[in-house]
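Lab notebook: predicted structure, single chain.

Context: the supervisor wants predicted structures on file for every construct in the current expression panel, including those that have not yet been purified. This is the next one on the list. No modifications to the sequence; it matches the entry in the shared construct table.
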Amino acid sequence: MLDALEDKELNFRFDERRLIGRRFNKTLNRLRGIFDKERHEIIEQEKYFGLMLDHVKTGVVVVEDSGRVNYCNNTALALLGVATFGHIRQIRSVSDSLYEIFQSITDGVEERTSYYNESGKMTIALTASAATIGKEHVLVIAFNDISNEIAENEQESWSKLIRVLTHEIMNTVTPIASLSETLLKFDNVDGEVRNGLSTISQSSRGLIKFVDTYRNLTRISTPSKKAFYFRELAERVINLTREQAVVSGAVCTYVEKSEDVLLYADEGQITQILINLVKNAVQAEAKNIEITAEINLSEHIIINIINDGHPISKESQEEIFVPFYTTKQEGTGIGLSLSRQIMRLHNGSLKLTRSDEKGTVFTLVFK
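Prediction complete. Output recorded below exactly as produced.
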């Protein structure tokens, strides 16, 4: 019995039918039953805690000294973008910097890093705690996606900066524009002075118009939400952008991957986002533009805008959602930033999921 218990085996039972030793065998069998009951309770507890960990939004990985992964919850798999996780060397295929952190992170230290997976760019914060399981020393690594938190803080900082800049510029430029226009009305102003005043007036008005455009970033109205079928909105966007698409030789289509996708949102604001993304695709010389809609396992509505135009450079991918940034000669640099803010007001997100030779994909997620 002792040998069996030491090997964690409980497939034994002593004969209670024999008269000699019956009471002793019965006691041994009772001990076996106690051990078996304890084992089943431990297994049930493990299942219970595992089920809980699979429903938290924090990725949890238990790593042995050898690098072997002892445990990994579903959130960790999703954040890393892998189907299984048996050893930390698998992370090399995800990100070299992330692999180095998993190798070097120590108890009580917090680390941050960014990488790309199927969902787009991820920024995660990692912490580790040392523990001992039996005789094995392990490291419990917990990590969270902080991409939205960072993006929101950046956007808030940009909004504050824009408010200050537009206020100061308008206070300075408006009197100049007004005064130059007033002076132009006098008949005794000679030719050169008149030309100079005219240039000042036009430049001032142009700057006021420019600044007023950026005020839109801090003046987004609260969404007026209602329920509607996304198919109707997608078809309306295709009709509104058809002329520009035809001129460029592009074709825009809609594919519904889940039946009757019902969206609860501000129809006008979401239309504005999609028109902007379709026009950007046309300007990137795309010939095929596809809008898709589906409902994922988490009951989130996923809208993808896919095009085969020129890919966005790696450098620009980091900046395209920053206000004022643009690669177009006549661009204002507020379209994507404005679109992302609208999605935040809808408790959703807008990401560049991918952009390479195979295609560019922008993803809207409605939670």
